[in-house]
Amino acid sequence: MLLCRYKPPLREVFFAKKMTEKYIDQEKLNIVENAIAVTCETDLKALGVSLGVASDQVSKQIDEYLTGHPGEMLAQTPQKISQQFIAGKSLMLISREETPRVLFHGTMYEAFSLNYTRVVEIGSVITDTEFRGLGLATRGCKKILDHLKAQNHNTLGIATIKQEMTAIVLAAAGMVPASYHDLIHITNLTCTCPEYSESFGHVCPFRRSKEKSTPEIFTALTDKTHPPEKTDCTLMVSDRILAAEINKYYREKHIESGGFPVSEDISVETMQLIAGFFAKVALYEK
Questions:
Q1: Does 3 map to a domain?
Q2: What phi-psi label fits residue 263: left (phi over 0), alpha (psi between -120 and 50 degrees) or beta?
Q3: What are phi and psi of 4, to 5 degrees?
Q4: Tens of pLDDT along 75-127?
Q5: Is 262 contained in some domain?
Q6: Helical segments of the chain, H only
Q7: CA 81, 82, 84 angle in degrees (round to 5)?
Q8: Is residue 32 within 8 Å of residue 104, measured between CB atoms?
Q9: Domain presence at residue 187
């Protein structure tokens, strides 16, 4: 009797493969959902991870990303990443696997603080490629916002984006697009590029215009129904009301310090006047 190896129908093979993929995705999703957010070396060590190993993983993740997306972010050495973490300028999501690993790394830099207010910019983020597509970047950014809020409820998180996908991720984390032109003083805190910004005597060619900063356009920016594309440089904030209050407070303090009401239009003169006010405050705080 001739024995033949059973070959299941293609339909059966297809569904078996889909079930396996679903199982693998759920397993990875569980790892993502159980990951622990850490912002200090003590908590990192408690999870059995050394800062050196974690920083090396992040550095390699960035290098891997840059091979397919050259120029989109800066390469970082493990030493630089360690320094950022020790200084409280980054957050990591660590898996709770038998051998823990870094799933997410995001940076956060204090742009300015005055009395009870604080503005912190969320910088570059990187995720483990194995876990992309599972909401990892959104989860990590939300953890950063929660961390900032826990430190001071008057902390405003800001970010500038040039990709619609980044806007979608940040929106899912709780951030919203905002008009640079309604938040002149906060806008100045993003006006830091020596080659393009008004603070350095240029006119930025990338910033979203006032005409393209309408509620309808902002809604479309985070719409998931079309493939995400590149977009004009857009300001995103963690809270529009808080952003307006802080911007108003900085404007009032600017006038009290001897400055005069600056124009609501973004210009070299306006940005340099505001930059002078921020520099004066920073010098006084020292």
A1: no
A2: beta
A3: -115, 140
A4: 999 999 999 999 999 999 999 999 999 999 999 999 999 999 999 999 999 99
A5: yes
A6: 10-33, 41-46, 51-68, 78-86, 136-151, 164-173, 184-188, 215-221, 240-256, 268-285
A7: 65
A8: no
A9: yes
Sign of the torsion formed by the C-alpha atoms of 92, 96, 97 and 100? positive
**CA-CA distance, 196 to 203, in Å (whole number)?**
6
Residue 108 host element (H or E) = strand 102-114
- Gap between the terminal Cα atoms of the chain: 92
Residue-wise pLDDT for 21-44, tens only, equals 445 588 899 999 999 999 999 999
User: What is the rounded distance in angstroms from the CA atom of residue 9 to the CA atom of residue 11?
Assistant: 5
H or E segment to which residue 119 belongs: strand 117-127
Tokens linked to 190: 């993003």
pTM for the structure as a whole: 0.85
- Can you give the CATH number for the domain in which 145 is found? 3.40.630.30
Torsion 135-141-147-150 (CA) sign: negative
Compute the distance between CA of residue 191 and CA of residue 177 in angstroms, rounded to an integer.
Answer: 17
For the record, the structure tokens of 205 come out as 């060619």
Identify the residue whose tokens are 């999501």.
93
Question: Judging by beta carbons within 10 Å of its beta carbon (0-12, 13-18, 19+), is residue 114 exposed, middle or buried?
Answer: middle
**Is 56 a domain residue?**
yes
